[in-house]
Amino acid sequence: MKTIATLGSHCALQLLKGAKDEGLHTLLICLKKRANLYRRFNFIEKTILVERFDEVIQAEKQEELLKEDSILIPHGTLISEVGVDLVERALKVPLFGNRWILRWEADRRLKERLMREAGLEPPPQLKPEEIDRLCIVKLPGAAGGRGYFLVSSREEFNSFAEKLKASGLVKSEEDFYIQEYCVGVPIYFQYFYSPLEEKVELLGIDRRYETSVDSIGRIPAKYQINLNIPLTYIVVGNIPLVLRESLLDEAYEIGEAFVEASKKNVPPGMIGPFCIEGVYTDNGSFVPFEFSARIVAGTNLYIDGSPYSKLIYDEPMSMGRRIAREIKNGLERGALDKIIT
Ligand code: AMP
């Protein structure tokens, strides 16, 4: 029987619980300082302790994983702590999903290209000298909105940029990604694409709970102005959401278009979980600005299934369990090569 392995962070509990529910073995690559947390959960059968997550690339750690017949499930921490270069070049352990598409998530230029190919038009990108309206400035890396800031003029941008460069957080002006700010309500669609069934499933929807954007409305306007509170987008959790039913058809079309574009541009295309992120504006249109080409932490809301998974499955179907189910089906049908790279 295969072992489902993952890094101990992000959505590891959900992934391993789902694997166990599907009768697969489970293995956690765990930071020594977090061992106390994960020890509490008896669905974790085996643990490899590390000081740093990038140790997973070391030959003896990989051998241990291979000896256990592991399939590694990627999540945000694999991208931020190990990085796409090592995942592409040095990871010998089979990875669930398309390892080549992770680069398209991490690189903003590739990301925009794939979105456009899918007919998903992101808000316009501006150069510093073009800032003449409210813009959001993003920093490199999958850091969950850390360090983002809002500006409405070149001067304002300069003063933020200088501070960030001085702090060493950002090296050059090219590292800033300036995007028109889009006023709307944020929505995150959680999809699963099954290459075995050739079908997109919408398994959940959420929004993020971010500081300080989601806390600033809790104080009266006069304090908001006087305190000059910087807006930050650091994710501290996720909130479940259901969509107006009349918008659901478009949500499916968006996911399907993304899968088609991924097949053409990043063979073998999207495999398993992915997420499209954006806002709905007041004219009812969806403006996309990001995708994640792997499981997102917002799926942790639905360990017991979501309103949308319930429409497809008559059993609790988390994203983690859905991944394990696909692996099990792949094993039974002798088609594992369609879902791992
Ligand atoms: P991201 O890192 O792109 O997932 O975004 C982090 C936060 O910034 C989320 O709350 C988004 O809603 C917000 N955000 C990102 N891009 C835009 C945009 N162009 N307009 C408005 N909000 C945005």
Say which molecules are bound, naming each kind only once: adenosine monophosphate
The CATH superfamily of the largest domain turns out to be ATP-grasp fold, B domain
Number of domains: 3
Distance between the termini: 19 Å
CATH topology of the largest domain: D-amino Acid Aminotransferase, Chain A, domain 1
CATH architecture of the largest domain: 2-Layer Sandwich
Q: Can you walk me through this structure?
A:
By secondary structure, the chain is of the alpha+beta class. The chain has 3 domains: about 5-95, Rossmann fold; about 105-120 and about 185-220 and about 235-320, 2-Layer Sandwich (D-amino Acid Aminotransferase, Chain A, domain 1); about 125-180, Dna Ligase, domain 1. It has helices at about 10-20, 35-40, 60-65, 75-80, 85-90, 100-105, 110-115, 155-165, 220-225, 250-265, 305-310, 320-330, and strands at about 5, 25-30, 45-50, 70, 125, 135-140, 150, 175-180, 185-195, 200-210, 235-240, 270-280, 285-290. The strands form 3 sheets. It has a 5-stranded antiparallel sheet with strand order 11-10-9-12-13. A 4-stranded parallel sheet has the order 3-2-1-4. A 4-stranded antiparallel sheet has the order 5-8-6-7, covered by helices on one side. Helix 1 (about 10-20) packs across helix 12. Adenosine monophosphate binds near residues 123, 145, 179 and 181.
